[in-house]
Description:
Order of helices and strands: EHHEEHEHEHHEHEEHEHEHEHEEHHHEE
Radius of gyration: 22 Å
Structural class: alpha/beta
Amino acid sequence: MRVLLVTDPDFALREATLVNRVNVGLMGMGIQVGRVVPNDMPSRPPIDLTAWTTYRSARLPWTRSCSAQDVLDDLASQPWGTAPPDIVHAMGAGCWPLALDICREAGGGSIVLDVWSIRLARRLPHARLRRRVSAYLAASQPIGELLRSSAPPNLVRVAPWGVLAPPESEVQPALADPDRSITAVVVGFGTNLQAHRDLCAALATISEQYAQLVVFLAAPPAQSAALHKIIKSFGLESRISLVPQAASARPLILHADLLLLPEASGEHQSLCLEAVAAGMIVIAAADPWVEYFQEDDIAVIVKQPGRDGWSEAIGRILGDPPEARRFAQHARAVVRDCYTASAYIERLADTYQHIVSDEAIAFDTRDGSLAPAEIQQT
């Protein structure tokens, strides 16, 4: 089987670790993998045995077919060869049109779309692209249910993301020396500024009691000015440092004590699972579209938004470090057992195999009937 992984700029930046893990896992299962990445990626994907090429992420609509042909020509000069891919797995809405163009120019291939956020579930591609989609991969059951209301239900598959949990000997316990140092990292998209105001208001109160608390806020550079204004309004310039939300910030984040996620954006981030697997304590706003942000299982959930809700949750964790570490151990065990990279990759491989083994027929049952809506050629 030949699978082409295509990523858009946003996904390539935020989920580089996840994609590389999928790349290696699929190859380990005997699947030939090719990579198509934006040309402004900071570096080549670190998988030497994988055919890969780039595309221009900023391009005019009428140049898309040329971009697709350039991709195929470049892959043809590598061991990938000239045969069309069996599967084009598009990760990120920014590369959905390119996935269609690659299949059309190659003369074959079925498209798999990753849908990891409520935003994507509500903006499915146009009809011409939908006719080539053989599977929608939902990152959670709630997103999957929403997809089934707007896409052929039998094409929707739920594939929760998974991570690798480091061995216990490599895990640094959270709040190991809370009397001397407490480090927290805030990760956000910067789209819900009120959520950041609420969290900053709570941190302003908490920092009066915990002078050893140091906070880093990782957000997209475009939102830095607005977030700095919020930080300044609470007098937290000496307490909170802004860092770019980029792959280079990941090591910093994963060595902190706390990960704070103030925005209930309906978006999945493998960073959260990696943080829990690394022994961190995650405190997150309740999010109905992310299953593990609904109850206190792998994260401490702030169910009542606002300053008081965040103050209570952070104060409860910092006020009882031994209990906080016990919670972190429990959360790590849940991720290790229920959100594994191997289970996620097996789910992907099963989906691919189903597509190439049979003619995937999209049955639309939303009106109560059972009739083929579209036939996807594989």
